Amino acid sequence: MHASIKPLLTKGFQVVKFKLIIDQGEWEDLWYKDEGGRDKCMHAMVGLYNNKRSSVHNRRIPLLLTLLYDTAVDYHSKVTKQDILQVLGSPRQFIDPDSGRATIRFRIEDVSKNHQGQNFRVNISADSTNIACIAPVQTRSVSIRSKRNKCQRTSKLELSISPNYASMPGASAGRLSS
User: Fold this and answer.
1) Which of 29-43, 68-82, 104-118, 134-148 has the lowest mean pLDDT?
2) CA distances from 8 to 11, 74, 142, 157 (A)
């Protein structure tokens, strides 16, 4: 060993054969849980891929969803009350062996304000100790709010009624004149 080269110790790591990738996830960074009804949800299309980024088929992989806080450090801490993560549809989620994908639909039933203002992420992993060779994936960060305040909702509704609303008579009073 050369005297000028200092030894280095790395953090532990796991060798994987496959990885989960979110192909598509639809929601904004700020999500209002009490607007749009109980069926309103976020969803993510998750696929199983090999090391060449080719879709893997013929494997039915059970999935485990875990709610995490989105923290500034590399390690995202697990939310203690996992029951605020509500999965819609089938109670068990699987990678479909025919398509190599799963569509995950979920809601977070508590607001970020009740969690020290922290944003959330959902960790999606293989749900089995027999399938340790699959790397998990995390959704993008989202801040959960209850609903927009009345002023925000009213201005959004007014803008959807008429794009030229501000130039119409009575617009400054917050209503259209008849």
Assistant:
1) 68-82
2) 10, 20, 36, 59
Q: Please, what's the b/e burial string for 16-50 (b: 16 or more CB within 10 A of its CB; e: otherwise)? A: eebbbbbeebeeeeebbbeeeeeeebbbbebbbbe
Chain-centre distance for alpha carbon 116 = 19
Alpha carbon distance 148, 160 (integer Å): 16
What is the distance between the terminal CA atoms of the chain, rounded to a whole angstrom?
A: 89
The pLDDT tens digits for 123-135 are 999 987 667 689 9
Amino acid at 36: G
Q: 144: which DSSP letter?
A: E
pLDDT digits (tens, 9 = 90+) for 14-30: 778 899 999 876 778 89
How much is the pTM?
0.75
Note the Cα 98 to chain centre separation in Å.
Answer: 24
Which residue segments constitute the domains of the chain, with CATH numbers given? 18-170 (2.60.40.10)
Of 71, 70, 18, nearest to 46 by C-alpha is 18
Alpha carbons 140 and 122: distance in angstroms, whole number? 8
